[in-house]
């Protein structure tokens, strides 16, 4: 994990008058260091050993705060749990229909989609999201 990214993000939180607690910093570092797209429960399970008195509500509250500040992105895909993503660059997601695995897709020209949409519709585009669904390589092996 890049310490510079952690430090930059902590500075952003401080500028927004967010108090940096050990639990909050641990959630942030976990989100920056993971390549998965965890649910709040996944984050809780990963940190429970270090913070036995921390509740799932604390995790949710911190993830909501980070989302509101634009530090992480909340991803809702129609299932019961939101997934969260720390991303410095815009990207798409491929989602396995069997196991729910989410993989980042970086595609050049991503910003062009918003410009084209704005030009075609006249909308003032504020963002977009694209999901690619399929069966991941691991799940494909299970059915062979």
Write a brief caption for the model.
It is found in: Cytoplasm. The chain is 44% helix and 13% strand.
Order of helices and strands: HHHHEEEEHEH
CATH superfamily of the largest domain: Winged helix-like DNA-binding domain superfamily/Winged helix DNA-binding domain
Provide the low-confidence segments as ranges. none
| CATH architect. name of the largest domain | Orthogonal Bundle
Q: Compute the gyration radius: what is it?
A: 17 Å
Assign the structural class, choosing from mainly alpha, mainly beta, alpha/beta, alpha+beta, or little secondary structure.
alpha+beta
**What's the CATH class of the largest domain, please?**
Mainly Alpha
* Tally of separate domains: 2
Mean pLDDT value: 88
How would you describe this protein?
This protein is α+β, with helices and mostly antiparallel strands and 144 residues long. It folds into 2 domains: 3-85, Winged helix-like DNA-binding domain superfamily/Winged helix DNA-binding domain (Arc Repressor Mutant, subunit A); 92-142, Dna Ligase, domain 1. It contains 6 helices and 5 strands. The chain has helices spanning 3-15, 22-33, 40-47, 56-68, 110-121, 137-142; strands spanning 73-75, 83-85, 92-96, 102-105, 131-134. The longest helix is centred in the N-terminal third of the chain and has 13 residues, at 3-15. The termini are far apart.
């Amino acid at each position: 994990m890049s310490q510079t990214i952690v430090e930059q993000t902590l500075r952003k939180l401080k500028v927004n008058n967010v108090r940096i607690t050990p639990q909050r910093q641990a959630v942030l570092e976990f989100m920056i260091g993971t390549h998965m797209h965890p649910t709040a429960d996944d984050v809780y399970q990963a940190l429970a050993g270090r913070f036995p008195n921390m509740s799932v509500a604390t995790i949710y509250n911190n993830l909501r705060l980070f989302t509101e500040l634009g530090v992480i992105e909340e991803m809702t895909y129609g299932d019961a749990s939101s997934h969260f993503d720390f991303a410095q660059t815009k990207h798409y997601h491929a989602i396995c229909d069997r196991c729910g695995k989410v993989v980042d897709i970086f595609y050049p020209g991503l910003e062009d989609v918003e410009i084209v949409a704005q030009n075609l519709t006249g909308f003032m585009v504020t963002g977009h999201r694209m999901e690619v669904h399929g069966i991941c390589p691991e799940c494909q092996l299970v059915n062979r």
